[in-house]
């Protein structure tokens, strides 16, 4: 795991259940405001789905964006968290 991935995973793991952040917000939070695509790439390599809730990271326009288990699963996870 790279230091960049480590920073991304740490920031994403702090997103509370029922909330989302954009790729841009995560990039800014880790001190790399223009690296939002790299944030997406790092999350695509996330092997710690139970610990790093990458489904909580969405596009700036609110659309779900990609997810390693598919967009449909990402939407289901987000909806389930809203219902809790």
Automatic annotation (TrEMBL):
It is an enzyme of class 2 (transferase). PROSITE patterns: MGMT. This is methylated-DNA--[protein]-cysteine S-methyltransferase. Belongs to the MGMT family. The keyword Transferase applies. Residues 3-82 form the Methylated-DNA-[protein]-cysteine S-methyltransferase DNA binding domain. GO terms for molecular function: methylated-DNA-[protein]-cysteine S-methyltransferase activity. It catalyses: a 6-O-methyl-2'-deoxyguanosine in DNA + L-cysteinyl-[protein] = S-methyl-L-cysteinyl-[protein] + a 2'-deoxyguanosine in DNA; a 4-O-methyl-thymidine in DNA + L-cysteinyl-[protein] = a thymidine in DNA + S-methyl-L-cysteinyl-[protein]. It comes from the Bacteria. Its EC number is 2.1.1.63. PANTHER family: METHYLATED-DNA--PROTEIN-CYSTEINE METHYLTRANSFERASE. Keywords: DNA damage, DNA repair, Methyltransferase, Transferase. GO terms for biological process: DNA repair; methylation. The keyword Protein biosynthesis does not apply.
């Amino acid at each position: 795991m790279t230091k960049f991935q480590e920073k991304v995973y740490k920031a994403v793991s702090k997103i509370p259940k029922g909330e989302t952040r954009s790729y841009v917000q995560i990039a800014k939070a880790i001190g790399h405001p223009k690296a939002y695509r790299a944030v997406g790439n790092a999350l695509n390599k996330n092997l710690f789905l139970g610990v790093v809730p990458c489904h909580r990271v969405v596009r700036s326009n609110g659309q779900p964006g990609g997810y390693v288990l598919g967009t449909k699963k990402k939407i289901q996870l987000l909806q389930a968290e809203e219902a809790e």
